[in-house]
Design brief:
Elements lengths: L2 H35 L6 E5 L8 E5 L16 E5 L7 E2 L12 E3 L7 E2 L13 E3 L10 H4 L5 E3 L5 E3 L1 H6 L7 H4 L4 E4 L11 H7 L4 H45 L8 H11 L1
Parallel strand pairs: 2-3, 3-5, 4-6, 5-7, 7-8, 9-10
Antiparallel strand pairs: 1-2
């Protein structure tokens, strides 16, 4: 066997050994943490065998447990977290802190109507798959998603296609295919004719902010007219008040008694001047 082939074989074998060691180390770390922290109540924890049969990923399943909030004390080494088919109505900002390795998160089939700002921001670097399908979401808050770039399932939500959603879309870093799954359930204005259509297509055809811009322009004009009317009213009041003061002052001067100058006073004044 040529030397180069032997060298490549040894290098390949060494790489496989190193990879196996890393997987076993990861599995051992996850197992130790699971034993130390325990599994959250109403959840089932296990080590998956997807990574070459060595069980290197910690999986936490809390599906269908009628949960109304995200469980606490989720192990830090969790790679997959399933919270589907529960009764979650909101996700607080600190729900997923301390999960730096989380790659998959399933929140489908809940009652989520709103995601609090920052609720998913901590998962940005590691999260690869996010499922938010079959919830009650009507809007997408960029502050809640926190720059996630993961593949996201957004289907089967009553999305409200309006100016706020149109302004939020460019700020999201999700995969384009994920945003294409946003289908309009209702529109503002109602006559936009976008119900049942993908919002990506609607945004290319319509400007849902046009009506809001017109309303804002009208409000600005009304405000400016109001200020102008106030200034004019003040000027009119100021002129009338000054005219009234001038009239009263003139009447006061007219009401002063006039002294009749006598001949003696006139001669004395004349002599004094001379």
């Amino acid at each position: 066997m040529p030397f180069s082939a032997v060298w490549l074989l040894r290098r390949s074998t060494a790489a496989q050994v190193l990879l196996s060691a890393l997987v076993l180390s990861s599995a051992a770390t996850a197992l130790q943490e699971l034993k130390a922290t325990g599994c959250p109540e109403s959840c089932y924890c296990s080590l998956s065998d997807d990574a070459g049969g060595d069980g290197g990923e910690l999986v936490v399943r809390c599906s269908g447990m009628l949960l109304t909030e995200v469980p606490r004390n989720i192990p830090n080494a969790t790679r997959r977290l399933y919270l589907d088919y529960n009764q979650l109505a909101s996700i607080p900002a600190d729900a997923f802190l301390g999960l730096p390795l989380l790659a998959e998160l399933d929140l489908s089939h809940n009652n989520l109507a709103r995601l609090e700002p920052g609720s998913l921001a901590a998962l940005g670097p590691s999260l690869q798959s996010l499922d938010l399908s079959s919830n009650q979401l009507q809007e997408l808050d960029p502050e809640a998603l926190g720059g996630l770039q993961s593949k996201t399932n957004l289907t089967d939500n009553p999305w409200r296609c309006d100016c706020a959603l149109q302004e939020a879309m460019p700020k999201l870093e999700l995969e384009p295919a994920s945003l294409a799954s946003v289908v309009c359930h209702s529109t503002v204005p109602e006559d936009a004719g976008a119900t049942g259509k993908s919002f990506v297509m609607v945004a290319q055809e319509l400007d849902l902010c046009a009506g809001l811009k017109r309303t804002t322009d009208v409000a600005m004009l009304v405000t400016m007219f109001g200020w102008f009317a106030m200034v004019i009213s003040y000027l009119v009041y100021y002129v009338r008040a000054n005219q009234e003061d001038a009239r009263r002052h003139l009447e006061y001067l007219k009401s002063l008694p006039n002294k009749q100058t006598t001949p003696e006073e006139t001669s004395i004044t004349t002599s004094t001047m001379v």
